[in-house]
Amino acid sequence: MNGNTKQLKRERRHRRIRAKVNGTAERPRLSVFRSNRGIYAQLIDDEKSTTLVAASTTSVKDARMPKRASELAKAVGKALAERAKQKHITRVVFDRGGYLYAGAIRALAEGAREGGLSF
């Protein structure tokens, strides 16, 4: 197998992004991970290597939640923004994790912006 599988390409893009993007206590990194089952987001202070706030589809999902991935991702973004506000975090840097800025990733970013995060 050659080195051009979808996963390897994403990991290469992610490493390239992470070379330029890092989070601080004042402006943490909003890191996104997407799996087949859900989407996960967390605010990370890279200087201390700690997660400040996290949210995922498993933490926001209930019977009334929409089933579409993009709608769930938007709800995750809003939930993350609410939790960040409680810790007085308003500014972040967005790390899309090597994923294309479309679909669920874009919806999560828009949800976070609607919730009050700026990036």
Automatic annotation (TrEMBL):
Family, as annotated: Belongs to the universal ribosomal protein uL18 family.
Family annotation (Pfam families): Ribosomal_L18p
PANTHER family, per database record: 39S RIBOSOMAL PROTEIN L18, MITOCHONDRIAL, LARGE RIBOSOMAL SUBUNIT PROTEIN UL18M
Function: This is one of the proteins that bind and probably mediate the attachment of the 5S RNA into the large ribosomal subunit, where it forms part of the central protuberance.
InterPro entries on file: Ribosomal_L18, Ribosomal_uL18_bac-type, Ribosomal_uL18_bac/plant/anim
Protein name: Large ribosomal subunit protein uL18
Top-rank lineage group of the source organism: Bacteria
Residue ranges the record marks as coiled coil: none
CDD domains per the UniProt record, alphabetical: Ribosomal_L18_L5e
Classification via Gene3D superfamilies: 3.30.420.100
Keyword Amino-acid biosynthesis tagged: no
NCBIfam families per UniProt: L18_bact
One record GO biological process: translation
One CC-aspect GO term: cytosolic large ribosomal subunit
Keyword RNA-binding appears in the UniProt entry: yes
Subunit structure: Part of the 50S ribosomal subunit; part of the 5S rRNA/L5/L18/L25 subcomplex. Contacts the 5S and 23S rRNAs.
GO molecular function, one term: 5S rRNA binding
Record keywords, A-Z: Ribonucleoprotein, Ribosomal protein, RNA-binding, rRNA-binding
